[in-house]
Amino acid sequence: MFFLHELERTITLHPSFFGPRTKEYLSTRLLEDVEGTCNGQYYVIIVLDTFHISEGRIIPGSGYAEYTIRYRAVVCRPFKGETVDAIVNSVNPMGVFADVGPLPVFVSNHLIPAEIKWDPNATPPQYTDNRDQVIEKGTHLRIKIIGTRSDVANMFAIGSIKEDFLGSVPFNLPVAEADVRRTL
Questions:
Q1: What DSSP assignment string belongs to 156-171?
Q2: Torsion of CA 73, 74, 77, 81, to 10 degrees
Q3: How far is CA 139 from CA 16, 84, 121, 125, 166, in A?
Q4: Confidence of residue 132 (pLDDT cuts 50, 70, 90)
């Protein structure tokens, strides 16, 4: 899910920014342009450092300069079959929408165990088995990613909680304790 990547980006700089603090400005601009973005394959979570800033190349006729920056970043790339922890964003009769960091995941009602039913009379709306499992907004879920879809600048996933050890996770317990407790 999380990887360390060495990436490269070209930044064009106006002549008014040339001077002794050019490299500092380029690093700041890189952080603003790249952190929190998605390129369709992964999300850039954070830029750790820049390890190479090229000499500026003047663009003929404009006075602007192009700099190529090589940097290391932590990226988030989900894979089919991966198990992740998510927080429920919304619940409706069709299923559950949850967020795994920046990645939105939809869990269809067909991929929720049969004993957990939609309760339209509950406030707030929820899926429940009328015992200890309640899925409502803010619930922590353990989801298995069934598939992903990418657009130009977004990614989406479909998930399932229909297998063993998936579903709601008590948020007041550390994750490892919740797993032990569920198996007892």
A1: EEEEE--STT-EE--T
A2: 150
A3: 50, 14, 18, 12, 13
A4: confident
Q: How far apart are CA 103 and CA 6, in angstroms?
A: 22
pTM: 0.79
Closest by Cα among 16, 10, 9 to 64? 16
pLDDT grade for 87, boundaries at 50, 70 and 90: very high
What pLDDT was estimated at residue 172?
62
Q: Residue 183: pLDDT band by 50, 70, 90 thresholds? A: very low
Instruction: With beta carbons less than 8 A apart as the criterion, state whether 178 and 166 touch.
Output: no
Which residues does 95 contact at the CB level (< 8 Å), separation at least 6? 106, 107, 108, 109, 110, 111, 112
Q: Which residues contact 151 (CB under 8 A, 6 or more apart)?
A: 40
3-class DSSP state of 8: strand
Closest CA to 102 of 49, 54, 57, 46: 46
Question: Residue 27's closest CA among 52, 2, 45, 3?
Answer: 52
